[in-house]
Write a structure and sequence with these properties.
heterodimer; A: mainly beta; 7-stranded mixed β-sheet; 4-stranded antiparallel β-sheet; globular; B: mainly beta; 6-stranded mixed β-sheet; 12 strands
């Protein structure tokens, strides 16, 4: 049982390049989330998917798009990367609405945009 | 606005000393409260949670947190820390729907 997996672990992009961060979970969870973590700011929600086939904006969605490919996979796309998107990105999943809102996190993707 | 505030960004502490990490939440968030721990270069792991019932909740590795409704606080404590407790700790609260709101994090550095 791998839990939540993310690829890649590290990535360096030039301004204007695009990329997709991949996330998969094997816990049969309904909900999945993408966060970014910046020093002193905790985790901020970018997008989330309450269930397969639905996606919604979080706190900081600008510059990102998401796809809930199936129940297991939830990808995050940067269409035209900017230096302000340098961050650590975490994917998470939860059993909501079946359990008490606790979320399970992947190991993160460290992205640098130059 | 819904918010969770962690009052200390860094807490240095000597090994075997007690530590307290402070967390306050706004009354507009639900009182489902969580503490997560992030060890260096890893993702977040759930440390403990308060959903209802006893206001004192404990984790398996010696941490405890107390829900205080009147002070809108959920402080985390450990009576004696180990080097292995060096990590960043995040307080979180259930927000609308299926979301969590996180505090800014507290870095704990345990010194020998």
């Amino acid at each position: 049982n791998a839990g939540v997996t993310q690829t890649p672990k590290f990535q360096v992009l030039k301004t204007g390049q695009s990329m997709t961060l991949q996330c998969a979970q094997d816990m049969n969870h309904n909900s999945m989330y993408w966060y970014r973590q910046d020093p002193g700011m905790g985790l901020r929600l970018i997008y989330y998917s309450a269930s397969e086939g639905t996606t919604d904006k979080g706190e900081v969605p600008n510059g990102y798009n998401v796809s809930r490919l199936n129940k297991r996979e939830f990808s995050l796309r940067l269409e035209s990367a900017a230096p302000s998107q340098t961050s650590v990105y975490f994917c998470a999943s939860s059993e909501w609405p079946d359990r008490y809102y606790e979320q399970y996190f992947g190991p993160g993707t460290r992205l640098t945009v130059t | 606005a819904q918010s969770v505030t962690q009052l200390d960004s860094q807490v240095p502490v000597f090994e075997e000393a007690p530590v307290e990490l402070r967390c306050n939440y706004s009354s507009s968030v639900s009182v489902y409260l969580f503490w997560y721990v992030q060890y260096p270069n890893q993702g977040l792991q759930l440390l403990l949670k308060y959903l209802s019932g006893s206001t004192l909740v404990e984790s398996i590795n010696g941490f405890e947190a107390e829900f205080n409704k009147s002070q809108t606080s959920f402080h985390l404590r450990k009576p004696s820390v180990h080097i292995s407790d060096t990590a960043e700790y995040f307080c979180a609260a259930k927000a609308a729907g299926n979301k969590l709101t996180f505090g800014g994090g507290t870095r704990v550095l345990v010194k020998p």
